Amino acid sequence: MDIHEYQAKELLSRYHIHIPRGGLAYSPEQAAYRASEIGGDRWVVKAQIHSGARGKAGGIKLCSSDHEIVAAADAMLGAKLVTHQTGAQGKLVSRLYVEEAMDIEREIYLGFVLDRKSERIMIVASSSGGMEIEEIAEAEPDSIIRATVDPGVGMQDFQAREIAFGLGIDNALIGRATQTLMGCYRAFVDYDAAMLEINPLVVTRRGDLVALDAKMSFDENALFRRPHIAEMRDKSQEDPRETYASDRGLSYVGLDGNIGCIINGAGLAMATMDMIKIAGGEPANFLDIGGGASPDRVAKSFRAVLHDKNVETILVNIFAGINRCDWVAEGVIKALKEVGVPVPLVVRLSGTNMEEGRRILAESGENIIVAETLAEAADKAVAAWRSFTAGKAA
Ligand code: GDP
Ligand code: MN
Q1: Is 55 in the pocket of ligand 1 (CB under 6 A)?
Q2: How many whole angstroms from 101 Cα to the centroid of ligand 1?
Q3: What topology does CATH give the domain 240-387?
Q4: Over the stretch 168-211, which tens digit does the pLDDT of each residue have?
Q5: One of this protein's GO BP terms (predicted)?
């Protein structure tokens, strides 16, 4: 789960990380009022959306008068900001964050991630901040500092100091940098974060170290024990298809194609999506129905897949180990009766109780295209989709 910049900054400030003074605004008037509360003569108006790279997309505006703040806020509020991370549909700006502007001496990149290879929290830092880390990694791979934390002892002060020295931070700021790094680490662990990124972390002309931007995302499996984080969720920033599915306990990722997928197992789901592509189609989603899927859960999955109005064919692919094909078949029939499936349906059942499952489908009298192998299922799904869309066009 992602949160907004202002929320991440608020969390980090509890861990003694310096942030610019700022305030939230929902209207241009409020934005100007925030600036007057903050004081000074230069401010930054920042669109709060769940995406980075807002600067290049017009979502960050440096202002030096009331008039400019009102104009910037007026242009951003209610607009859809398209960054290279949002996709073409963009993200709606409904909150702004107004901050005192900082005089920047240098910009640093700082990230904390869970590194799957070492199974540890990894700190990634670079003295060339401000840009996307991917670009830095490509242009100057040697400039990137990486360190992992031993989970037995946690992050140590010496590690933080080593990173700070590696970044070429002035002696006078080493203490501040160490506090910042240790604070990030504690916040990461205390809140069950999956990612924490400060880009840029800036050295100001006044000689302070300030988080100018902040991004955090959290492990959804831990949200039950982090109610304060859970309530920061902003569903308006999420793909509505994914919100619908996750609210119902389904593991779903929305994609851009037209063939809806209901599959058991993440690996089989990936393989099926590949097979659909090889057959000439495009998957509309990833959906792992999980082991032991009851007829209710199958019907629920149909609802989630059909929630996406671009779906023009559904492919159910079950390789049943823990699952039972007869249960899945009952779920399919239940969905056809209760949900109504207005598009072609291809079903492939294999594994535990598959004869029983196939019999249930055959005897249902419903219009179901059956397949025995994965390749056959993908071919039939793409063929069904082609004739369905041809029929719609005619
Ligand atoms: P992002 O584009 O979504 O990553 O948004 P950021 O908050 O990182 O802002 C993008 C860029 O705007 C930063 O890298 C800075 O160069 C610039 N910027 C943001 N805030 C300030 C500020 O207070 N003063 C100055 N001079 N530049 C700023
Ligand atoms: Mn940034």
Answers
A1: yes
A2: 9
A3: Rossmann fold (3.40.50)
A4: 999 999 999 999 999 999 999 999 999 999 999 999 999 999 99
A5: tricarboxylic acid cycle
